[in-house]
Every structure is written in structure tokens, then in C-alpha cells.
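Hi Y.,

Following your request, here is the sequence exactly as I used it, all 253 residues.
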Amino acid sequence: MATALQSRPQVTEAEWEARQQLASCYRVFDMLGWSEMIYNHITLKIPGEDGAFLINPFGLHFSEVKASNLVKIDIDGNKLDDSPYPVNRAGFVQHALFHRHLPDAHCIMHSHTTAGMAVSSLEGGLQPVNFYACNFIGQIAYHDFEGVTVRDEEGERLLANLGNKRMMLLRNHGILVMGRTLPEAFIKHWSLQRACEIQVATLSMGRPLAISEDVVAVHQRDLHMAQVPGGPGAADFAAMVRLVDRTDKSWRD
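Below is the corresponding structure, written out as C-alpha cells. Let me know if you'd prefer a different format.
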């Protein structure tokens, strides 16, 4: 850690830690098969710097993201470092909107996984037909597809449709989740992705067994009993980073 900071004197310890955590997350997404060419985004606020957040360099695959090549920008899209890489406007517009208006949206993840896009393209969206789906019934917002998200004026409708929720299925588009920490956002994304995968598999076999509202309520009430120390997703995310480290630690650079 000290060596990295000495070679980058303009980077605070808090920013470097945020860079390493976010870079590791991109590698975890890639390991789990959630890369989409050079597209999609995970963003993370920099602690102690109002309006500053990190985003992946446009043109690099998730497997190429490192702590040092993440791009630091403000909520107006201005680069705050000397990165040679551009930022994809389709990613910036959506993420900056939520970072600007939602103080608790510390980390935002957007993906185009096959299962996530399939369920977001299904009338009725996520259905109460499996364990993981029950985690989120009543907690998912929906936003109709308006084309690629490069227009600022779509932001008002995105915020209105999100309301007080922090997970959204962008119809015909994919998954969007937010968290107070990166591990929290990660475990939300992982669980929602699993819910979508299982729903796709279940619907392919015929008519699913629906879970009643009463059982969903009990399930959501009791979920906290299964949480592990460290906060939501902390142990899960740490385990995934250890798996990444077994094959490639270059994200740390």
C-alpha cells in the first residue's frame, strides 16, 4: 500500500483503497461471466471527496481494469485525473444521476447479463418463484426502455421510477443495483442475478410454483438471521476476491 501511494503522491490513501476495491470488483464480475465486451459499468464514490467517483476506462475489458487505470470523474463528467482513457457517456449519464441525487448510492452496478436482460424483457419482470426472488419481491423498481442512456432528460424519469428503492430492472435492458458499500451492492447484484437465472430455467420447463405473499414476507423478515459479520456482502465479496487472486493479482496495481 505504501509503495503504491508513494508512486502516486496525488492519490490519497482513501482513494487508493477505493480504487483497489473497485478494480477487484471488475475482476470478480469478469470471473463470474458478467463482462459485456468493453461495456457496462460499476462506479464507486471516493470517500471524503464530494461529487468524485471512479469508473472503468472506456475501451478496456473488465479483465484489464486495474486500480491505477480507473478514471476519476465528477458528477458533471469532468475528469479529475490525467487518465488517457475516455469515459463512456452511456455509463456516465446514468451513474452520475444517481450519485448526484442519492447520498446512499455509494456504489452503483449496471450489467447486461443474459439472465438479467431476459427477465427485464419479460412481462411481469421478476416473479416470486424461487428463494432468491423472494429476497426482492416488492423491492424492485422498473423503468421502460427509452434507448441507450445518453440523454440527460431521461434522468427525471429514472429517478421517479426508482422512488425509494435501490434496485431496478431496466426493461429490455438489464440490472441496476445500488449499495451503501460496494460489497452490499455486489451481494444484491449476485442474488438478483441468481434469481433471474433460476427464473429463466424454471419458466423454460413449464408453469412455475408461485410463492405466496405471506411466505415472501416471512422470508424477508427472517433474512437478517442469516447475515454474517462485516456488513451485507462483506464475506461474500472477500471470498470472490480471494478466488480472483488465485489466478491474477494485477488488479492491485
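The CA atoms of residues 19 and 67 lie 5 Å apart.

Thanks again,
Q.
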